[in-house]
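Hi V.,

You were right to ask for the full record rather than a summary. Here it is.
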Amino acid sequence: MNGNAVLILIAPLAVFLFYKFGYVFGALIIVYLLAMYGYPYVRRLMRGKGVAYIEPEALEKQISEKKDMLMIDLRSSVDFYGMFGHVDGAVNLPFEAFMNRINETADRLAGFKETPIVIIGLRDENEVYKAYTALKQKGFVDVHVLNFGISRWLRRGFPTVERNVHKV
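Predicted structure:
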């Protein structure tokens, strides 16, 4: 269910519930419904604005044009090499390792701060936003988050590689 569908369904329901049950109880029901069905969209609003997203179509175009960029997949290596695979050209750096390395090596990466970076997660989890924020705070300029992660990439029908294959 996308954000517009959630709002279209919630708005008339909100008016009815406020009229029928009063403001406090109606508001509680609306918050519950949003939490259950519009959770990714509510979560984004709570995180704040300013996160740069890239849609799977735009990322696929950049990959096919062989644009110079770094794609960091924050999923575990089990997920990265697992059933769904990963985006061709992505580097697997699980979140914990990423956070340790960004703090240790940010100064050594000073020459790459203009290089476009795309952060990939499973869906829309907090780890992706923490990694995004860490890179921005370290001075990286062109950082994007793959919108709704590898799950949207797959839903849109784009290919993945290395299914069930571990590199040594």
